[in-house]
């Protein structure tokens, strides 16, 4: 049992990628809390994982986009898991929506629907904030880490897909957050990485879409996905990286190259200045 005695909080655990990950790791001894707005679905997964007789999984109801709901769910998870959370997997997410009203004859302005940003970006940042606050209160575990956070972004965080503007915006936000914050957290023995899959057969899209993708060899299997996750657990020190998961395996996706030497100098100078000048950031280390 590779993960005996270790614990995880998983958002989006009722379905798809969250469910694959929860099932894979619970079968290796990890105790998991499945946090989802689909509470019945999360309970079904927990029941399935607990069927051997001893409890390894619990369900809590949250809406990741609602801070109070997430805080309450996370607090419940800390208690259910005995006060310590080794891993937080921020997986909950939705696909793009028809966000922008298109009524050329209208005389008023309508509020857009920004749900993909609220859930995929803000929701994952709420989860990250809870995770990091909890990790800072915990002693290092047997692997030497206070905790590890993995956020599921997407290939749409690197490659712009014109038909999915808010989805791309939400996933790009997460890739940018992980590549910066993950490097800062290294000093605290906390890791933060993004798993960025291509296309997987889950409830996020239709069966037809996935059937066609499968025929074209475009699907990432749950086994490949779980293996990419697993590389980041235990003693692994990778942090601040976006891991691209493709049908034939996973690689670290490098960030954009500097256009020229000036750009590199400017970015590094801005980092140093901000680090020295920002008392809030400095205080957050202690
Ligand atoms: N399936 C893919 O092809 C693919 C590819 C790349 C990235 N992703 C990302 O993987 C993550 C999981 O998606 P999936 O494919 O497993 O889809 P899914 O629909 O099967 O699962 C998503 C889960 O998130 C939950 N969820 C959605 N909004 C929530 C909210 N506001 N609060 C709490 N829970 C919420 C849903 O109830 C569901 O259980 C998403 O972030 C998605 O963007 C999916």
Automatic annotation (TrEMBL):
Keywords: NADP, Oxidoreductase. InterPro entries: NAD(P)-bd_dom_sf (IPR036291), Sc_DH/Rdtase_CS (IPR020904), SDR_fam (IPR002347). The keyword Phosphoprotein does not apply. Pfam families: adh_short. Belongs to the short-chain dehydrogenases/reductases (SDR) family. This is Uncharacterized protein. It comes from Sporothrix stenoceras.
């Amino acid at each position: 049992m590779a993960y005996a005695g270790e614990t995880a909080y998983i958002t989006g655990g009722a379905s798809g990628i969250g469910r694959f990950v929860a099932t894979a790791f619970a079968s290796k001894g990890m105790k998991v809390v499945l946090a989802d707005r689909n509470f019945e679905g999360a309970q079904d997964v927990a029941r399935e994982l607990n069927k051997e007789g001893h409890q390894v999984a619990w369900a809590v109801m949250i809406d990741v986009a609602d801070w109070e709901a997430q805080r309450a769910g996370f607090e419940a998870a800390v208690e259910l898991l005995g006060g310590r959370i080794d891993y937080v997997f921020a997986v909950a997410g939705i696909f793009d929506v028809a966000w922008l009203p298109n009524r050329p004859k209208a005389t008023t302005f309508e509020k857009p629907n920004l749900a993909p940003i609220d859930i995929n970006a803000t929701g994952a940042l709420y989860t990250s904030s809870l995770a990091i606050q909890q990790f800072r209160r915990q002693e290092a575990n047997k692997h030497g880490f206070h905790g590890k956070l993995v956020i599921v972004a997407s290939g749409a965080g690197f490659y712009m897909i014109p038909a999915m503007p808010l989805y791309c915006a939400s996933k790009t936000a997460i890739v940018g957050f992980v590549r910066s914050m993950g490097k800062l957290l290294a000093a605290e023995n906390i890791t933060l990485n993004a798993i960025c899959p291509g296309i997987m057969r889950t409830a996020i899209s239709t069966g037809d879409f996935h059937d066609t993708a499968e025929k074209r060899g475009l699907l990432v299997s749950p086994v490949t996905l779980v293996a990419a996750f697993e590389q980041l657990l235990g003693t692994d020190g990778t942090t601040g990286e976006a891991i691209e998961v493709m049908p034939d395996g996973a690689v670290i996706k490098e960030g954009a190259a500097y256009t020229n030497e000036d750009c590199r100098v400017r970015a590094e100078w801005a980092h140093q200045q901000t680090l020295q000048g920002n008392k809030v950031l400095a205080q957050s280390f202690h």
